[in-house]
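Help wanted!
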Amino acid sequence: MANPLPFFVAQPGINSSPPTRRSLFRVWRPQSLQKLFRAPFLPNASATIPRETMVQVTRAPGFIKTEALVGYLGKMDSMIQQQLKMHWEGKQNVHAYELIHRMTATLSSRFFLGLEDDDPRIEKFAKLSDGMTVGLHSIPINLPGTVFYHAKKLADSLRKEVHQLIKEKKAAMSSGIQMHDILSHMILSSDPSAGRFTTEREVASLSSALVVSGFTTPATALAIVMKYIAERPEIYKKICAEQEEISKSKKSGDTLTWEDLQKMKYTWHTTMEIMRIIPPFQGAFREALSDFTYEGYTIPKGWKVYWTVTTTNKNPECFPDPETFDPSRFESPPPYTFVPFGGGLRVCPGKEYTRLVMLIFLHNLVKKFKWEVLAPNENMVGTVIPTPAQGFPIRLQPLSA
Ligand code: HEM
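Answered by r_m:
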């Protein structure tokens, strides 16, 4: 028998395997993430809880419905235009990551938490979530001085802040004020499958998860996409052409519609292809449901398996010549071959929201600017969601209207 591995990094294709292989894995959350937020935030799947129930009790995605996104789209477009006006226009050299992050934080705060754009809590949440992200894949040693300890403290502060916000919202709602953000929906919604209401603490934990994921990952993804496009003028031109067609079909002052987004095929395929080659999120954990052997290594039941996005996304059997940029690959990628957002039961619930943010931002950006990357060899730092080490400095070149 081959030596068991204490920690297993999935090889190419592991996520593209047929259901038999997938059924070996029990859905499992990263241990550190779980401890940072403690149960009930995304607890271990338990054999005693039927799957469907578990999905309802523990998952965030169900409530990010397409209707909610369609309803938010126009607002998102205006907010992005406003952000570009306030923080990008009239500037020449900027640290783009900081500006993108400010924008994604503002958008998420409005959509998920119902905060106004100038609410000082947005910056506080952003700082807490950034610090926490660093600890997501750290070794869970809870001693002062460790990355995990620090991240856990930040997670506690974030949850406390969100808890306070929940109390404020509850008070406002009980005095008859209508609220339409995701957090308010969570506060109001019950969990019939569990036969009980979701507790305030559970809502605070889930909302904290949305803050952490919604602020940072789309910002990293957009920075990567902007860099990639800036360095390849032929891609930039094609995106501009597609976006210009959409702009031409609209009256001045009109915001983007759901139909407009469906026309952004080249822009979205390009974005997906860039995320395939340079994924903004590195991977996640699963737990082996039974002993199995892979490539001569035995993975015992109960061990944690870390699957990586890059190895799956660059499997040459699914993506021939995997390092080559080819957005035409995305006419219909087979399931579980393209996994920047994960896959299966725990697929990222923010995927569709992210598509909106990225497309609307790119639409407005290429209408206004060309940009030049000032630090072409800049490193990405961090583990699970890396960020540009120097803040992605660029030179903006405004386009005449
Ligand atoms: C470019 C943007 C994003 C990328 C690349 C990304 C990627 C991922 C990946 C790879 C996973 C793990 C899936 C798995 O375990 O199979 C995940 C989970 C998750 N993401 Fe995202 N994400 C993004 C944006 C967002 C946004 C905007 C939100 C806010 C709603 C979000 C919320 C979550 C949550 C709550 C989970 C845990 C889901 C669960 O375990 O049930 N993500 N994401």
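OP: Thanks! One thing I noticed: The pocket of protoporphyrin IX containing FE is lined by residues 42, 59-60, 209-210, 213-214, 217-218, 221, 280-281, 284, 340-343, 346-350, 353-354 (CB under 6 Å).
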